[in-house]
Amino acid sequence: MAAWKGEPRTTRGGQPRHSELAISTALTLRAVFSLALRQTEGLIGSIIALLGLDLPVPGQTVLSALTPEMPSMQADAAGYARLRMASTVAA
Description:
Layout: H1 20-33, H2 37-50, H3 60-66
C-alpha cells in the first residue's frame, strides 16, 4: 500500500499525494472500461472503499493533467484495444 502514495519531493513545490502506480492504475482502468475521468475517480474510490483501505483517490483534475503523459491505447479494426501488462509472482 505504500507504493500507492506519492514519494516525497526533494525539490521546491508541493508534495505529491499519488504515485505513478496510482495514476497509471487509474488511467488503465479508464481505458479498459472506457470511462470518463469523473467515473474513473468514482470507480477507484469504490474499489478502495470496498477493500477497506484508507488511501487517497486520484481526482479527475490530477488524471486530466497527467493523461497526455501516459501512452494511449488504440482500438484495432474490430474495436478491441490491446493492453500489455507485466506481472510478477511472489514466491
